Amino acid sequence: MEVFEPTLKRISTLGYPGLSNPKLEIKSGLNPATVMSQDARVHYVLGDSADAVRLPDSYNGLGFKNLIYMVVEILDLQEKWRAEEEKRAPLHLIFIEEPEAHLHAQLQQVFIRNVLGLLQIAGEDGGVFASQVVVTTHSSHILYERGFCPIRYFRRQIIAGEQMTKVLNLSSFQMGDAPKDRDFLQRYLKLTHCDLFFADAAILVEGNVERLLLPLMIEKAATNLRSASLSILEVGGAFGHRFKELIEFLGITTLIITDIDSVMAVLQPATDAGESEDAEKEFEIPPEEEGGEPQKRYGSTCLPGENGALTANQTLIQWLPRKRTINDLHAVTSEAKTELLTGSDTTMVRVAYQILTDVSWNGLTSRLCGRTLEEAFGLENADWCQSADQRSVGLKLRGTVADPAAVAAGLHKRVIGKNFDKTKFALEVLTRKDGDWIVPLYIKEGLEWLRDQVDLEVDQEVEAVVDAAAEAPMAAQNADQVV
Known about the structure:
Blueprint: H1 5-12, E1 23-28, E2 40-46, E3 53-56, H2 62-82, E4 91-97, H3 105-118, E5 130-136, H4 140-146, E6 152-159, E7 162-169, H5 182-191, E8 201-205, H6 208-221, E9 230-234, H7 244-250, E10 253-257, E11 262-266, E12 280-285, E13 295-301, E14 310-311, H8 314-318, H9 326-331, E15 338-340, E16 348-352, E17 357-361, E18 364-368, H10 373-380, H11 382-385, H12 404-416, H13 422-431, H14 441-482
Parallel strand pairs: 4-5, 8-9, 8-10, 10-16
Antiparallel strand pairs: 1-2, 2-3, 6-7, 11-13, 11-14, 12-13, 15-16, 17-18
Helix pairs in contact: 3-4, 6-13, 10-12
C-alpha cells in the first residue's frame, strides 16, 4: 500500500463519482488455489471507519476506470522522463486522445482543470524542464475550463474541390493589450455555448423565446437540419454584432435570427417608462467619419408601420444588412441579407428579421410586419392565437377586433406590457407541438436557407471524397509506370 500511496493521493485530487467520494485502496489478491496467478487488486472504500465498505474495482463504471488509467499512465510517463536526469529532454509532450470517453460532464471539467497539477514536480517549478499536455477533444465541457488561448481549432474546408483542414490558433484572435470583444466572448461562451467549436453551423437568436421554439420550428420548416450539428446561441440584437469577428475567424456558416426592433427617435429617454417595460430604447449608430466615436440615440418603441420608424437593433445597423430605417430594411432583398464571411470564399452568413406579410382577419387582408417574434407569430397565426382554446398562450385580445391593423396594434400593446410573460408564451406554444400554427415567414426563410447551405457543404465534401478516391488508382498507376 505504501508503494502506491503517492499515486493514490494524486488521483484523489481529480474527484470521481460515487457515494461520499470513495477512496482507492490496494489489497493483495492472493488465493491459495491460484497463488501463482494472483496479484494486487484495486478496491474502493466507502467511509473512514473500521467498518467501511470495500468494493472491488470491477464494480466501477468505465468512466472511473478510464480516469484511473489515464492518471497512472500520465504519472508513469512523467516519472520515466524525470528519471533520465542528465539525459532528460527539456520538453516533455504527453498526448491524450479524447479523455472525455465515459466521463460525465463535471468529471471532464475536474480532470482537465487538474491534469497540469499532476505534472508538477516538487522543487522544479519554474525550471527549464517542463511537461506539456496536448488534448484532442470533442467535449464542450473541456473547452469550458480552458478559455481561448490553448485552443487549436481544426476546420474542414473544400478548396478547389479538394477537402482540406485549416488549423486556427485561438490565442491569436483579437491580439493586443485592448482586445475589442475577446474577453466578453470568452466569458459568454464559457457560461453558455462552448459547443460552437463543434458545430456544422451556428444560429444566433434574439432571446430565450427563440431558443426554446427553434428546435420545434426546425422540425416544422426545415426537417433536414435535425441531422446537422447546430449551435444555437442566445445573443440578443444588442450583442449579436459582437460575435461577428469570432464567426469570421472560425469560418462557420451562420444564420442570425433577430428582431426588427422599431422605434421612433426621441431626444432623450423619458424618466418614467409607464406600463411598458421596454418602451424606451438606447442604441448607437456608427460614426460618420472613420475612427470617430459611435453616436448615442434614443427611441420610443413603436409599430414598424409608423412613418419615420428606425431600428434600434445593433446587429441590423452594424453587421447585416447595415440599415437604419424600417423602410430600408423592408426594401432589402433576400440576396442582400446574405454575404460571404470576411476572409472566406465559400462560407456564408445570413440575417433574418420580421418582414411584411399578408395578414388576414375578419375577411380583410393587409400587408403588416411584427416588431418581435411574438408579434409576428400572432399576426401570421391570427385565427389560431385569437381562438378561445389558445387563451393561455397569452396573445388573445379582448373585445372585438375590427381588422388586421387592429390585431397588430393590440398585439404590440400586449407584448410590450409588463404583464406579458414571454417565457410562458414559448412554453405554451411548445405544449401545442401538433397545433395548427405556422412558423413566421422570416424564420422559415432563414431556416430553409441554412438547410440549403448545410446540404451544399455535405455535397461538396462527398464530391471531394469521390474525386480523391478516383484519383488514387490513377496516381498509383502513374507511379508504377515511373518505376
